[in-house]
Model the fold of this input.
Amino acid sequence: MTRLLSGVALALAALTAILFVPHTGLRVIACLVAALAAHEYLGILHQDDRSPRTPPVLLLVVLTCWWMSAPDRGSLLALLLLGLGWLAIEVLGRGLTVDRAAARFLAPWYIGMPLGMLAAVQAIGGRMATLLLVATIVVSDSAQFYTGRLLGRRPLAPAISPKKTIEGAVGGAVLATLFLALAGPRVLPLAGVPSLVLLGLIIVALGICGDLFESRLKRIAGVKDSATLIPGHGGILDRLDGLLFATPAFYLYLVT
Done:
């Protein structure tokens, strides 16, 4: 019951933000969510360090998110150079290992960039385009879950996520792609059905990769959830894992 109520509350909050919050407000919300998700991500990385110095990394995540959420953004070179500079400081100045520093450096690109792109989708394609992307991910996740429960026999990635099955992945790909192919032309009139089918398959594949990526992070760290912020659901990162990987593909589809 707690999981259901939390899920309904999250869905209503997301729907309200997408449909009623102006673009500037949506950019602010995206940055706040990015900061929370990045904090969880850094917490997973630093299970053996109770007080990691994270403010500079969180600032880079927020800056990247804000920059990417502008439809007329400029080059990312400045942010990349800033990040590389901080990476050098962490390795040379703070004495972090290269792999630890690189994992921290990933945060702006893993979290800040796709959440910024998600906010930019509204300005580029309209509110319904954002809703279309989120709905496609929801359909994919739901179809994977129920198809896997009914038909699942062969594990997809047993060492990472034992409950995921190949049958569930196929079910998610078929139903989510069908949904996007049918609903897409109403939201994106210039989009052809063949391109939407290809986009749907890419979104589902990337969403699964995002889910498995976060599952792998948690398995390495020995934690079940990224946080306990959302009752019954874990943390922000647990809810966004697939969306973080899938959003850039949808964003690039709109701008190219």
About this structure: The two ends are 43 Å apart (CA to CA). The chain has one domain: 2-255. The CA atoms of residues 38 and 107 lie 6 Å apart.
